[in-house]
Amino acid sequence: MSRLARKLAGTLLLGRKARVDVFRMVADLLDAGFSLERALEIAARAAKDQGQRGRAQLLGAWRKALLEDRFADAVAGSLPASEAMIFHAYGRVDAAVLFAAAARVAEMRERQIAAVWKALAMPMVLALGLVLMLWAAGGHFIPVIESVSPPEQWGSGARLFRSVSVWLNANTLAFGATLLGLVAAVTAAMVAWTGPGRTVLDKIAPFSLYRTLTGSAFLFVTMEFLAAGIDVNDRTFEALKRAASPYARHRIAAIQGHMARGVGLGRSMVMAGHGFPDPSLVPVVAALDGAPGWERKLARFVERWVGRSDELLRARAALLNGTLLIVAALVMGSGIDAMFSILEQAARY
After folding, report:
1. pTM for the model
2. Is the pLDDT reported for residue 26 higher than 90?
3. CA end-to-end span of the chain, whole Å?
4. How far apart are the C-alpha atoms of 195 and 208, rounded to whole Å?
5. Do the Cβ atoms of 130 and 331 come closer than 8 Å?
6. Closest CA to 282 of 218, 193, 348
């Protein structure tokens, strides 16, 4: 099974809220003195008793991987990148710390993603409603009106409305495939493209949203590592990159390259020039870097920033939100105007 397939299967079998519950359960069992093997066995049995057989099988696979000395890769391979980063530190720190940290990262991501969806929900619903309206008009309303009023007598707006709605009704599958292809292309570009122009695109949604989501996860995981006593060095960065997306891997590698030359974490972020992990974070990390107790001070700042990151994400989604609403309003207004024009022409016959 490919890496992508394993991650998709893991996400389906263990949703975000379920992962938080499992991570916290295992962390509590470890803190209570159980071995990791026994903790995973108990978690799998609890899932099976609740009828979650798929979840129980996944936890059983983790336990098997532990016995085969490939635990980190097996767990990371079935989790989203932000949480998978944590488990690549397995063997360098107590497992209970890793599971507790993974739960915190999962909760952070849930709040952030929920904020983005909440900001975009209304314009997306409007856009879907407009598409359905055009499709229905092309298949039902327009043919009826054409039977009593020739399209040649309609105004330009009405003729455009007719052309769009009739085409959409006749080419529904082609429109759907094109739309899905566009979404897939943008998603692939966000996740993988690091070439010329990406730094500029990172300033606008949805690319800016992806940068904030991946960047905050990277910095939050880094803070968890520091809190667990793991130095931020080449080995740490290699562990972070193993689970990261191509985009995040490129950005992390740029920071790693400067640190390898003896530059501090914050200054390396500045010198990389990507605004990663986030433009609002980089100057503060650079200012705190090297100060007495900077890890503790930076951890407090990052924790507060993460607590407010849902507001930041909503603000950055505002432009995309507003653009979608304006387009929806224009299309709706044009459609209403066209319908009145068509009905006015029909009334003359």
Report:
1. 0.80
2. yes
3. 66
4. 16
5. yes
6. 218
